[in-house]
Design goal:
heterotrimer, B: about 260 residues, alpha/beta, Rossmann fold, 6-stranded mixed β-sheet, 4-stranded antiparallel β-sheet, 10 strands, C: mainly alpha, globular
């Protein structure tokens, strides 16, 4: 791949033009500038805040809640999903309860969490776990169910018991689906953490952004948004990288099949 | 001495309407220790059903399978099945070496020299240097070699093979046949080989069980008098090879008329 | 009648069991009835609120906002996605801008929308519009970009004009994936309408649930959640019915391939 292809010149140009138009119109039109300050001022706010450490603290708090909620959800939902996908009877028992709970928008449980866990970390993490668990759970169940029968029969002809087939065959074979669920949940986790921080938080980037809006410090608000977006972007890149490393076999295989 | 006995084995499938149709009916035969026996029959005659029952993956509706004096009730310890669809039965997430190691792990073999053993087996099937590849990076014939090496790693006394060379091209097929004969001789296993290719059955086997149309039963037990080691050109040019082929062909096609 | 472990009725039994345990646990105060009121009380509250028109009114308010944002997003981003899918130049031009804007978590757009539109309907419509943009845009783009070249060449050998190529070939071929984008957005719409109503509103079902909690009308809160679950379920069914009718050709094809 040549350098000119890697560097997207028209893309950068468009971005620069938009940035320029934004900057100029915000400077020329003070009314607009109040709502959408010039880009340069947002960058300036970001730097000032970075040195005040205030924003950094909020970032760490948000990241901590994100990781706690996401990882807990992953552990619970993958384990539950494998059991429900593998043992059809267990799924049949839970199907109706799952189908009733699934369509409810996950944020609706925030009030319940407040009621039971108060306003603080526990509530934010709990709603994140709840919301993230769904895509992982559903994808894991699907993944385990879609495993080729022949793979399981291969395990059986080699004399493996149910639990060893589960661990050595069902889990890796379902992994591509599980990863899909984990990817979907990644953005859901950030949605729930920021929402939770807006509704009940007194710290974290979600709280900071809303608080700056209420105090009409719009530069700071946009700086917070930029930072939380960057966090989302970085987490996504990290995930893609982990996925590419751990799932090399799947990538290569699907790429080959597509040929 | 018979290591594998099939006695009056039957299997019926329940249809959507509730009535059951037999896939195989009252099949009986024996395989001796160290023997290479083939089952040939027209496609769709229930060969796979028969193998699945023998491998303990399907419960028969009647009759029984006995391996080394023990009746089969689940997958037997000393028997393993190689499927035709290597691309579905190999573990895509394990490397070639990892797939072979699986056979050793399944056996409960976890000593330090398992890797050496696995590499040795890969050498036997002609896959030196491909240890770190993933199955999908190999050609079909090579993938089936991996599946065979994995099965051999389990050190089965009986190897069941369900049309293992049915999905590879004709040239590769001949190569695989010769490799299999070499392995069989070296490792002294018993092989029951299912195919719908009459010539392949003759070329490989000591004895051939001919199956009739569905619901299939044994319609012929043919001993192959050809000498070993066999050769793709000389053996197939032998007059007795032709005679056998014609005889088995007549048995199978004649069965359809009745 | 003997117990059948495969029956779906077992699921109903489990559901009834959960409800019964809930009811008893709450009545015997094993769990705090202030936080978890008996199911019967929640259901009574639900039916009262539905009959009195409170819940329907709140849902209607929310649904108007949801529909406006969702339809607006579809109207803008499907055509844009088609354009981006068709023309590589436009795609390259907007690529970086899209990549910069996409990671913005939708909830943090709520404060921006409050700044721009105040606390009214416009704020919620904007938030929903923004959050639905990505699934619709990127799925449409992908769908259009990946239309089978053979299909396009076929149409062109028949001398089909460019405009008709888009409406008669590319759009239908990409429609399954466009539908995927729309279905994902439907779920997002529901989530964002609730979030925006929780953060900045004085009506709508999201506000109603949070407000009930703040005023400790816990049975009302659960009743609101119940109505939201039913709404989500209903919308999903309507969507599936619509796409199954419109895309019946696709469904038949994919099930055939299996």
């Amino acid at each position: 791949m040549s350098l000119s292809r890697r560097i997207n010149a028209p893309g950068l140009a468009t971005f620069a033009v938009l940035l320029f138009l934004w900057e100029v119109s915000a400077r020329l039109n003070p009314v607009m500038g109040a709502y959408l300050p010039p880009a340069s001022r947002i960058v300036q706010s970001l730097f000032q805040l970075a040195f005040s450490r205030e924003l950094f603290t909020h970032l760490i708090v948000t990241l901590g809640r994100f990781l706690a909620g996401y990882l807990l959800a992953a552990m619970i939902a993958v384990a539950l999903g494998i059991v429900l996908g593998y043992f059809r009877r267990a799924y049949n028992l839970c199907e109706i309860v799952i189908e009733l709970l699934r369509p409810m928008p996950s944020v609706a449980i925030i009030p319940v969490a407040i009621l039971m866990l108060g306003i603080g970390n526990a509530t934010i993490v709990a709603v994140t776990v709840y919301a993230c668990a769904w895509p992982i759970l559903i994808n894991t169940i699907d993944g385990v169910r879609n495993i080729d029968r022949m793979l399981l029969d291969t395990g059986r002809t080699f004399g493996l018991g149910r639990w060893r087939i589960l661990r050595a065959i069902a889990l890796p074979a379902a992994l591509p689906y599980i990863v899909t669920g984990l990817r979907v949940s990644l953005s859901i986790a950030l949605i729930l953490v920021t929402t939770g921080e807006m509704v009940v938080g007194s710290s974290g980037l979600g709280f900071f952004i809303l608080d700056e809006e209420r105090s009409l410090r719009t530069g700071n608000m946009y700086a917070g948004i930029a930072l939380v977006s960057f966090l989302g972007y970085a987490l996504n890149r990290l995930f893609v990288w982990l996925d590419a490393t751990a799932m090399k076999w799947h990538r290569g295989m699907t790429a080959r099949e597509a040929l | 001495m018979a290591i594998l006995e099939v006695e009056a084995l039957s299997k019926s499938y329940r249809q959507a309407g509730g009535e059951s149709t037999p896939a195989i009916q009252e099949i009986s035969f024996q395989v001796d220790q160290g023997e290479f026996v083939s089952l040939v029959g027209p496609s769709g005659c229930g060969k796979t059903t028969l193998l699945m029952c023998m491998a303990g993956l399907l419960a028969p509706s009647g009759g029984r399978v006995v391996v080394k004096g023990e009746q089969v009730a689940g997958p037997p310890r000393n028997l393993v099945l190689v499927f035709q669809e290597y691309n579905r039965s190999l573990f895509a997430w394990r490397t070639v070496l990892g797939n072979v190691l699986f056979g050793l792990e399944a056996k409960g073999n976890s000593s330090r020299d398992t890797e050496k053993k696995a590499k040795h087996l890969l050498g036997l099937v002609g896959l030196e240097g491909f240890e770190r590849h993933y199955p999908w990076e190999l050609s079909g014939g090579m993938q089936q070699r991996v599946a065979i090496a994995r099965a051999l790693a389990y050190e089965p006394e009986v190897l069941l093979m369900d049309e293992p060379f049915g999905s590879v091209d004709a040239m590769t097929r001949l190569e695989l046949e010769d490799s299999l004969l070499k392995l069989w001789k070296e490792l002294c296993t018993t092989i029951l080989f299912v195919t719908h290719d009459i010539e392949e059955a003759i070329y490989l086997s000591d004895r051939i069980q001919v199956l009739g149309r569905r619901p299939s039963r044994v319609i012929g037990d043919v001993v192959v008098p050809l000498s070993r080691p066999r050769d793709q050109l000389a053996t197939r040019a032998d007059g007795r090879f032709m005679e056998l082929r014609n005889e088995i062909y007549r048995q199978i096609s004649g069965d359809g008329v009745s | 009648m003997s117990w059948n472990p495969e029956s779906k009725l077992n699921g109903v039994a489990v559901l009834l069991g959960v409800v019964a345990v809930w009811e008893i646990a709450s009545r015997t105060e094993v769990v705090n009835p202030l936080f978890v009121p008996p199911m019967s009380k929640i259901l009574r509250s639900f039916f009262t609120l539905v009959a009195a028109g409170d819940i329907p009114a709140q849902i209607l308010t929310s649904m108007k906002r949801a529909a406006a944002g969702y339809l607006l997003a579809a109207a803008v981003f499907i055509p844009l996605g088609v354009a981006l899918g068709l023309f590589k130049k436009i795609r390259r031009m907007l690529e970086i801008v899209i990549e910069m804007a996409r990671p913005i978590p939708p909830p943090v757009v709520v404060p921006v929308a409050m700044l721009l539109f105040g606390l009214g309907d416009g704020m919620k419509v904007f938030v929903i519009f923004f959050s639905c943009a990505w699934p619709i845009l990127l799925n449409t783009l992908d769908g259009v970009k990946n239309v089978d070249r053979v299909l396009i060449y076929t149409a062109r050998t028949f001398g089909v004009s460019r405009g008709r190529l888009v409406t008669e070939v590319i759009l239908p071929a990409a429609s399954p994936q466009i539908a995927t984008g729309l279905r994902i957005s439907l779920g997002i719409t529901l989530i964002l309408v609730v979030i925006s109503e929780m953060v900045g509103s004085s009506d709508g079902i999201g506000y109603f649930i949070l407000d009930s909690q703040r005023r400790f009308k816990v049975d009302q809160m659960y009743a609101g959640m119940l109505s939201l679950a039913l709404l989500g379920y209903l919308l999903n069914i309507i969507f599936l019915l619509a796409t199954n009718t419109l895309l019946s050709w696709h469904r038949g094809m994919t099930s055939e391939e299996k």
